[in-house]
Specification:
Radius of gyration: 17 Å
Number of strands: 6
Strand order of the largest sheet: 1-2
Amino acid sequence: MYNLLTKWPFLVLVASAVACGGDSEEYRFGFNTTGIEFVFFDVNEGIFPSRVTLSNPNNPFREYAIGSETKFDILDDGGNAAGFYAWAVVLAGEPTGENQYYTATKLRDLFLSDEVAEADREIVRDMAIEGFQRVLDCFPDSVYFDVTGAFPRKLATPAYLEIVDLGGRVQGDWALVQDTNGNPQAVRSTPFNFAAREFPCL
């Protein structure tokens, strides 16, 4: 897998905060990523195991491989629509809990910031909920790390909480309990019945 920065170095212009007087770096991939708009294409886009985002003409990243550093640059500074499209491409190429989780966070952000057509808002909310549910269904043991990179934490708990915050209902035998430090922790008591899901983790 090649990095977009390597394949098309002339497409990527990084204007530093010092040069532009801004608060953060702005990344451009031959276009202004913060100017990308979300256009609803398919209810399964950005939700594993779907790869439909790779055929979405509205996704400007569909023909590029995005590196591990670049995806976080876009997540932080690229705008919500660009973040969603970029992470959906990464998820299609590398199905992991981290990639599913951050793709879902961009769907959540698009919904919460009203960056979608009014007729599509509830659809996008449901897509975000389903994306977080896929973390629980398909990647229940996936972890993320703190800023030091030293302390892994399971993504199941934040995914669970995101579903609840969006007004969804967590599917499966999941419950929220307190760990020894009094922090919430999502756990399940029995294996999830994948066969009962409309879109199993295949």
